[in-house]
Amino acid sequence: MISVFVQRTEEEANKALAKNPTSLDAPREIYKKALESKIIATKRCSSVRERTGYEEEIRELYISRAAMEIQMGQKKQANLVFEEAMKLDFCRRDPVFWKAYINFFIRIGKYERARKLFKKSLEYVDVSLGRGDDV
């Protein structure tokens, strides 16, 4: 289930896109600011539970932004969004994030790249832990 914060961010980005459908600058800026605010909040939090919540929202924001880029036909930019997220350890460990990244390559017909990412995901995701989600 997507957080209220991410839903609001998506709504703001969609409104910005509706105002100027030929430019993705405004929606990208909305996502950038949302990510920055959550990353700052993560650094300031005092509990593991609170930090985990922020990290979940950050992963959701990256997936949501990549989905927007894909919807607008910006495959290279979507890949860059995923690559940026992969720099964060908590994204690299998350099976839901990997699923979104792998599915991106499947949707665009890059099956070998999807296969390589799946193999790479096995290095980072501890499948024995499970999150209780249907992945």
Walk me through this protein's architecture.
- The chain has 135 residues and is mostly helical.
- The chain has helices at 4-19, 25-44, 48-71, 75-85, 89-92, 95-107, 111-124.
- Helix 3 runs antiparallel to helix 4 (75-85), helix 3 runs parallel beside helix 6 and helix 6 (95-107) packs antiparallel against helix 7.
- The longest helix is centred in the middle third of the chain and has 24 residues, at 48-71.
- The two termini are 13 Å apart.
Number of helices: 7
Overall structural class, as computed from helix and strand content, comes to mainly alpha
Distance between the termini: 13 Å
Mean pLDDT: 92
Characterize the main sheet: none
**Helicity range:** over 70%
Query: What is the total tally of β strands?
Result: 0
Strand content: under 5%
Order of helices and strands: HHHHHHH
Shape: flat
Poorly predicted sequence stretches spanning 5 or more consecutive residues? none
**Cα Rg:** 15 Å
